[in-house]
Amino acid sequence: xxDIVIEYLDCRPGGVWVDCTAGEGGHAKQILKRIGxxxxxxxxxRDAGVLEKAKDKLKGQEENVRIFNSNFTGxxxxxxxxxxxxxxxxxxxxxxxxxQLEDRSRGFSFKDDGPxxxxxxxxxxxxxxxxxxNLDERRLNEAIFRYxxxxxxxxxxxxxxxxxxxxxxxxxxxxxxIIRRAIPRSKWPGRIHPATRTFQALRILVNxxxxxxxxxxxxxxxxxxxxxxxxxxxFHSLEDRIVKNVFRDFSGRKEEAMFKVxxxxxxxxxxxxxxxxxxxxxxxxxxxxxING
Length: 293
Ligand SMILES: C[S@@+](CC[C@H](N)C(=O)[O-])C[C@H]1O[C@@H](n2cnc3c(N)ncnc32)[C@H](O)[C@@H]1O
Prior knowledge:
Layout lengths: L1 H8 L6 E4 L6 H10 L4 E6 L2 H10 L7 E5 L5 H7 L5 E7 L4 H5 L25 H7 L2 H12 L4 H12 L7 H11 L13 H12 L1 H13 L2 E11 L2 H15 L6 E4 L5 E2 L2 H6 L7 E8 L2
Parallel strand pairs: 1-2, 1-4, 2-3, 4-5
Antiparallel strand pairs: 5-8, 6-8, 7-8
Helix pairs in contact: 1-2, 7-8, 7-10, 8-9, 11-12
């Protein structure tokens, strides 16, 4: 899907592009290739560890890159600091990088038995363990239902509260086991682990992920030049719904700067890519363009 994203971003030599979720630098490298020695790439990620990977990948091209360890909610401030008022394109590739998922000390994966952390940034004070061990049952239920779209939220919240009465729940593995037992076996989801939705909910809660997207997408569209492009890759329906709604809202406005949605339906990975990279199965790309910005 990277090639399609880069096409939609319409990267040309000499322009300014922003990668709001630089991750390990895969897309960033492709953008740099196309904008050439005259172009500028602003690479942002809230995870300092993963940014080190991006720095490695972009070595030798430092002149054309500015790297910021920040939440992308700081996009406007970052551009101000660089004295840039408008840019040619902005990319959001939401969610987690492989590096974060595979680092068992972060507790993002129910497959590993790492500490129940899930913080994408050291600036976040409360880890997943805090919420799992302190939120009251009603709020746990609400969070799992809302952010995980998990219909067994009530049983899971109940099981968590019962288990934590016996001792603090400290690891991803311990939580995954509690969730597995809270859902009747005959109701386990077919393709995914029974803990997938609850882990998604906790991650969204810990990192305030939806708030960041809701706040930053409209601001990002306002930072695009005439013919500037925005691309968003999302990995679950809650994110995709926000992108769809923001794009629809902007394209319906009759203002001087118009917004055109370039993807009538979200673009999904090819069957071949889905086979090679199972995470791409849930990826959805939406792209848009500002006209007369
Ligand atoms: C799917 S990965 C990006 C992978 C990247 N496009 C690449 O090609 O390597 C998502 C990245 O977004 C970062 N991220 C998620 N939410 C963020 C936010 N609100 N602000 C900044 N970075 C964020 C994560 O830390 C993670 O590294």
